[in-house]
Amino acid sequence: MRSLYLDRRTWMHAVPAWLKLALLSAGGTALVLTNRPAVLGAACGLALALFASLGRPAWGRVRTLFGIAIACALIVGFHALLGTTLLGVASALRIATAAVLALMLTLTTRFEDLLAVLETVLHPLRRLDVPTDRIALGLGLTLRFAENFYVQWQRLDDAHRARAGRGGGLRLLAPLTIRTLQTAERVADALAARLGR
């Protein structure tokens, strides 16, 4: 599966995966605890500044945030129609900030490192005979498939844009579904071969 991971190292690559996950969890929790647009706006600005500090390689992947930007605009518009514009702005800022932080994690953390952190966190459950390695693998693959889903969509959209001069939109759902299923089948075959099942 293709990955958004940046091979060109940035300062954030040196930060341990467990620390990035812990900070992302703490930051996400803090975002939920406030509805003040000023505070959330400052948090979003800080997240964007951190993203900008990753340099040009990271900005090459900024297109991954366009879908989030559209969703945020729709949220604000919906709340404006209901007369709760400030609540909509707060919600949009919260989502945008979390998306930028999550993208930074994806760009600067290898899948193997994320998997190792998940296995460590779940390790105490082994005392209850819980198959923590399989749970960690399942969670890791979920994260990776979400990332791969976007990459595949972007490649299909670029190809359609090159042929037709405009984005594919909903026309891409069928080929995207086929590609996703093909990827899932290849991963399942690889896991079956590795696990002997």
What does this structure look like?
The chain is 74% helix and 0% strand. With 197 residues, it is an all-alpha fold. 17% of the residues are buried.
**Gyration radius, in Å:** 19 Å
Low-confidence stretches: none
Q: Tell me the structural class.
A: mainly alpha
Distance between the termini: 21 Å
Mean pLDDT: 82
Q: Which range best describes the helical content: under 10%, 10-25%, 25-40%, 40-55%, 55-70% or over 70%? A: over 70%
Secondary structure layout:
Blueprint: H1 17-32, H2 37-52, H3 56-59, H4 66-82, H5 85-108, H6 111-122, H7 132-164, H8 173-195
Helix pairs in contact: 1-5, 2-5, 4-5, 6-7, 7-8
Offer a few descriptive terms.
0% strand, 8 helices, globular
Q: Short summary of the structure?
A:
The protein has 197 residues and is an all-alpha fold.
